[in-house]
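Quick question, first post here. What does this chain look like in 3D?
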Amino acid sequence: MGLSGLMVWAIDQDDSTLSALTAVTGSTPRRHSSGGDFNLVDLKRLFPKEDIPSDTSDPQYGLITFGAGSESGEVDPANSGFGFLLAVRESHGLTQLKARDGRPDPFVFLDCPDNVLDQPSNQTQKARVVCTSQDVDGCFRVRERGVEGTLVEMPDDCAPNSFARAIALELAEDQTMPDHLVKRHTPTSPIYEFSFDFNKHERRADAKVAIRMDMTNVKGYWDGLVDSPGKRTFEKGDKFKYGSGENSLKIQKDLSTPVFWQAADNYPIGDKDYGEGIAGFIKGKVDADIYYAATVIATSARDSLNVNVKEANRFIKVTGETDLTFGIGGMGYLDINMAKKGNPAKSEINYKALKGHTISAGSFWGYMSLTPFINRQTVLFTSYMDEGPSSRPNHAATLDGRLTTRIKTDLGDFPATFPHILFPDEIDSIRKHHKDTEIEVFDDDILYGDGGRNGSTI
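> Answer (accepted):
Ran it through. Tokens below.
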């Protein structure tokens, strides 16, 4: 039986939804960006200096909390487990032509091409636009570092819920306002002709994006995360010291299972033949607590389908114990090679996903998820006493009786970390608190025969 927990994340970019990263499962964010300044923490504490874009005025982020510290509804990552996704991009790579609170009003579309969303993606389309706000520079933010190739979020009154590629913004020959808009808008700029298409593969490549992902169920991880500028996570003796049982992922599972049943011809005892049969089983449970954390720092660009991972750190720590009784009984010859599954023979892996969490960082950046899981597998081999398992034939084990052993194993306090590994002094310190394995052999076990001169191992 093997117990494993694994944090899985994927980083991808989807052209149709313009996600700079995605990762797998589902939940609902408790807090997300809606424009304006990012004030949760200084960005210098989240990114290495060289990876922070020159313009950080428009971050997109999502934050969820979970565990005991969030049951009251308080969103405080310092007092609970949390998921955090932050994307900071240079503003010239993407411009929003859809009005949003806390951001400069974009220019107004005076008209819109017919069937704008039904045209070929590489067909240039044109619309007349004008600024009606006092912040003319903010209104025409699409011109920052050049119009062509800038990705734009289209407004509700022209190609709603879509993204286009800006091509040009030129002074329009027709400077008249439509009658139905004169009463609603007061122009603060000349009227321009805005050219665009939906060929997003040709969007500009010079807009740098910095991405930060964190997910953990460890209380106190947030404070350790942002306690110093440019902190590199998972230094020696660092993150895995945090945690208490209140936020752990609890695993209480019955692991009892029949392992096999073998019945064949007859088994000779003395001068008589008796029916042959051997059965094996595992009975018991696992009672464990899982603590985990994963951090990824990456950079990307708007035209790239790839993400450049600059740092990737994670750890998992499992505490608790397994209490299992292994038993085998019957009489006959047990040769696992007869199962045609090799020696040792392994059962199919029993996979069980545990409670995961998903966090969104706004409409541009998709979502990320982390799903811990456990795998369970049974392994059986037969051999002579002084040999290990082998795929060679004629390694049958002789059994005539019943053998059962109860084993209680302390899972310890040993964290598995990546890329950092535990140093010998760290292992020695943890080992001092590790309980000895308890082994119990039952009084009613009995053997009527042995494996001969070479013995048998099952």
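The chain has four helices and 24 strands.
The helical segments are 136-139, 179-182, 221-225, 424-431.
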